[in-house]
Amino acid sequence: MKPNFSLRLKVFNLNCWGIPYLSKHRADRMKRLGDFLNVESFDLALLEEVWSEQDFQYLRQKLSPTYRAAHYFRSGVIGSGLCVFSKHPIQELTQHVYSLNGYPYMIHHGDWFCGKAVGLLVLHLSGLVLNVYVTHLHAEYNRQKDIYLAHRVAQAWELAQFIHHTSKKADVVLLCGDLNMHQEDLGCCLLKEWTGLHDAYLETRDFKGSEEGNTMIPQNCYVTQQELEPFPFGIRIDYVLYKAVSGFYISCKTLETTTGHDPHRGTPFSDHEALMATLYVRHSPPEQNPSPIQRPAERSPLISVLREAWTELGLGMAQARWWATFSGYVIGLGLLLLALLCILAARGGAWEAAILLWTPSVGLVLGGGAVYLFHMQEAKGLYRAQAELQHALGRAREARDLELEPQPAPLLEQQEGDRAEEQ
Amino acid sequence: MKPNFSLRLKVFNLNCWGIPYLSKHRADRMKRLGDFLNVESFDLALLEEVWSEQDFQYLRQKLSPTYRAAHYFRSGVIGSGLCVFSKHPIQELTQHVYSLNGYPYMIHHGDWFCGKAVGLLVLHLSGLVLNVYVTHLHAEYNRQKDIYLAHRVAQAWELAQFIHHTSKKADVVLLCGDLNMHQEDLGCCLLKEWTGLHDAYLETRDFKGSEEGNTMIPQNCYVTQQELEPFPFGIRIDYVLYKAVSGFYISCKTLETTTGHDPHRGTPFSDHEALMATLYVRHSPPEQNPSPIQRPAERSPLISVLREAWTELGLGMAQARWWATFSGYVIGLGLLLLALLCILAARGGAWEAAILLWTPSVGLVLGGGAVYLFHMQEAKGLYRAQAELQHALGRAREARDLELEPQPAPLLEQQEGDRAEEQ
């Protein structure tokens, strides 16, 4: 490889808002998106919320002259909505479906039916191994009282773990997608601290687009304005994140977002804004080489975010167990009612009441049973993530304590506790 | 590292048959297993079917003086049943839950409720990175008419992909567990071809134990004898598989199984036989170094097994879609009945019949709906695995064709087809 080697990557990301029958002007938007992607000729176009496989097939056909490779990530009842178009051949691909993704009885939210996932593509470009991830996490419907917070944190942890374990031999890691989290949110911090990914918006010196890099903005005619009321400039929940390992350096030369309309001033491609990044990968000069060994001071944010996530998942678990217990009582009540009805029927009295109450009693038992099973599974899923976090936390603390020797670890813990109390 | 470096690994694997209330002598077997593991002091003890977390906690406490680290992999409603005890610190851990795992309405089989998974531990031993996987795939209840075949093949593929993508920087890979597959079964071949793992039983020169290395044998008093009728010597469905990469060489010095009773001639630890392997990892002499580039002839079994798995998943998909369509009709029938009942009730006639038929109609709609959703999800899951297989098949064919140049690829395909027709 040449010493002045440099690889340019043009990347496009968009949450396409492609809900059949519900999303406005879907066909027209898909057509214009296809035209735009063909003209701009990105290296990679990563899309979310392409819920209809027909839309993917349409885009695949339309984009095939420019983008040789394409893949649609299938999961859940509806699908993950994720797909990717690449100018370069895809060497390998796989996906991971998140074990927690909302509640099946929250039909109006619908996330559970989608089977939210993270898709992985491995590309070989100019001798570099590039791991590209695309994802879409659970939506946030109410920021003040977010019943899905624990699920989103667990998803962020699974995403971080998936990237961590599958990218060990990659030279460059790229994650695009709709994380449904603001940059300061717990899940977002957890993801960045655990994987070491950098945020293109925060890193680039050349940003063009919406105020504060927001990807849902009030200027977009498809956005429900009430949802953005607490955020007059909009919110930034779609990301391009990246890192380079093993002697390479990656930087974001330019980052651009659409600004509430398509790049030709027409109606927007979606209710989200598109992200367009130009990344450069170079050989890493020694001073820019990311240090593989974190110093104790660098471990503190990791330890703190792991601890915070652990606590949040604990709260989610308590909630899940409460629902499991509650549905246990409902099952009990249903069984009691059924027993009473049987006694009533056996004695030959009140047949009509028995027949009328039969349906709700069976409903209570079956409905309660389904809810019980679901929340037991939820509690197990949260416990699993919590146990992994606990392990990671233990390892991070051990590493920090080892580095801080000869100061004894318990004393350090004590000091930390004292500081926390003082604050 | 010294040139004559050698690492010895003593590994224990057992499907513990630990179903609360159902498995005979569970407490006694767990106690004796704990005693045995403490005495033998393996590097790693990998267990399956530890369904009760209390059993895991009991073993954890009992084994803590010998095995410093332990982990229980939680998933599904009941759990994955997987756990691990390690003499060495666990550096990292994670797990992957299989997206397909039987049917929730097959309650008597129960696999769906378990959330079958693969657990991963990363250990650092003498400067080596060791990735240890433990898993348990869907049971085979009827070999002649196996309705779970497509699910097991999909699980084998997910397992193979998980190992492939997470072990790229590992020096040694070890997989133990109950695969519920015979060595010649499609899923088993797929797993071995895709990952390059070797079977300890087939590789070792020093095997002691049951006939043909079987891990479910008629001599075991807990085994249901009818199930083994077609196999008078038993079946081999539990495995120790391994490989070394990046300049190392791994061999199985000894492999031992129990033979229908515990090693002290008492009643067995489980209805499965335990596997005890002693593995050695050494620097790889050049001639033993596994070739990273497969020759065309070596690709043929991979291509053939990928093709076969692709076909099997296709059959599973057709079945899943048939069930989805059937349940669609059931929903339709339920809705029709409900409409008739409403009309009947509105006209003021046949109240009793209306009330009586209300429950089955609602039951048809809700039950049909649940079955429809489940099989749609199943079809999506199978399609996902099939698409990944298709991609892998394409890449393998391209690689073979490239290696066989200047012979044109289409001609080769034609020749292959001709040969297949001749046979």
TrEMBL record, chains A, B:
Pathway: Lipid metabolism; sphingolipid metabolism; Sphingolipid metabolism
Obligatory cofactor(s): Mg(2+)
Enzyme Commission number(s) of this protein: 3.1.4.12
InterPro entries reported in the protein's UniProt record: Endo/exonu/phosph_ase_sf (IPR036691), Endo/exonuclease/phosphatase (IPR005135), Sph/SMPD2-like (IPR038772)
Catalytic activity: 1-O-octadecyl-sn-glycero-3-phosphocholine + H2O = 1-O-octadecyl-sn-glycerol + phosphocholine + H(+); 1-hexadecanoyl-sn-glycero-3-phosphocholine + H2O = 1-hexadecanoyl-sn-glycerol + phosphocholine + H(+); a sphingosylphosphocholine + H2O = a sphingoid base + phosphocholine + H(+); an N-(acyl)-sphingosylphosphocholine + H2O = an N-acyl-sphingoid base + phosphocholine + H(+)
Signal peptide: none
UniProt topology in membrane: Multi-pass membrane protein
Keywords: Hydrolase, Lipid metabolism, Magnesium, Membrane, Metal-binding, Sphingolipid metabolism, Transmembrane, Transmembrane helix
Keyword Zinc: no
A biological-process GO annotation: ceramide metabolic process
Compartments (UniProt record): Membrane
Residue segments, region Disordered: 400-423
GO cellular component, one term: plasma membrane
Domain Endonuclease/exonuclease/phosphatase: 14-272
Example GO molecular function: sphingomyelin phosphodiesterase activity
Family the UniProt entry places it in: Belongs to the neutral sphingomyelinase family.
PANTHER family in alphabetical order: PHOSPHODIESTERASE, PUTATIVE-RELATED, SPHINGOMYELINASE FAMILY MEMBER
Protein's UniProt name: Sphingomyelin phosphodiesterase 2
Protein's organism: Microcebus murinus (Gray mouse lemur)
